[in-house]
Amino acid sequence: MTKILVAGATGMVGAVALGLLLRNDRVDRIVAPTRRPLQSHPKLLNPIIDSAYIPQNADWWAADGAICALGTTRAKSKSAAAFRAIDYDYALAIATQLRASGAGRFALVTSMGADARSWFLYTRTKGELEKAVDRLGFSSLTIVRPGFLGGERHEHRPLERGLGALLRIAAPILPASARTSPASTVAALLVEAALTGSPGRHIVTSAQISHTADRRT
Fold first, then answer.
1. Mean pLDDT on 76-104
2. Could you confirm whether domain 3-216 is CATH 3.40.50.720?
3. What is the pLDDT, as a whole number, of residue 118?
4. Mean pLDDT of the chain
5. Are 122 and 74 in contact (CB under 8 A)?
6. Mean pLDDT of 59-78
7. Band of pLDDT at residue 177, cut at 50, 70 and 90
8. What is the model's pLDDT at position 76?
9. Greatest CA separation found in the chain?
10. 102's torsion region: left (phi>0), alpha (psi -120 to 50) or beta?
11. DSSP three-state, residue 65
């Protein structure tokens, strides 16, 4: 029996990853803790939790592998502290709980340019999260660093929609690292890492995501 936990299942990448897992015959059970209820499914356990309180003794934390696709933006969160509370504190708390409960494989979405020494809040926070999760000692840690994510969002973000359209038009002349990272490809990479990730720490760059997307089309 293979059990996978998905954190961030209501986001663009997390929702795609959840769908892939629900259709995957190798997976018997998926746990997706969220703030609002998801559509029910026989394979899905959907605990309703909030970032302000993470239940530490719940038996559903025990999983074979996990995906963390949590993330927000500085603009949406309204302050640097609120952004960090989700993208670092909440994500690390979930990773810590999973490791303590025995999860061996962990697949994490961060960002192109993630660097704990970056001057920019977004990429610095992502880099700090990578280092903190690495210290937890998962037997298999896969970090996926996408560029601009391409896919359907539930939120209305006109500026991002416009940028995405420009990147799609310019894709033939852009280096692989600068192209849009399809959410479907990122999700597929996360799912495979959570299911079969080999021992050690693995980084998947935006260029590798682009090459994988090309092979999938």
1. 93
2. yes
3. 97
4. 88
5. yes
6. 89
7. low
8. 77
9. 51
10. left
11. strand
The answer to whether 189 and 204 have CB atoms below 8 angstroms apart is yes
CB contact at 8 A, 32 and 9: yes
Q: Mean per-residue pLDDT for 123-150?
A: 96
Any idea what DSSP says for residue 64? S
Residue 52 pLDDT? 78
Judge whether 45 and 60 are in contact, CB under 8 Å.
yes
The three-class DSSP label of residue 56 is: coil
How confident is residue 106, by pLDDT bands cut at 50, 70 and 90? very high
Residue spans of the domains in the chain: they are 3-216
Distance CA 166, CA 172 (A): 11
Note the pLDDT of residue 176: 56
What sign does the CA torsion over 19, 71, 216, 169 have? positive
Residue 23 vs residues 105, 157, 171: alpha-carbon distances, Å:
20, 29, 31
What's the CA gap between 189 and 208, in Å, rounded? 10
SS percent in the chain: helix, strand, coil, step 5: 45, 15, 40
Distance in angstroms (rounded) separating the CA atoms of residues 66 and 40: 20
Q: Tokens 């080999």 sit at which residue?
A: 198
Mean pLDDT value of segment 126-151: 94
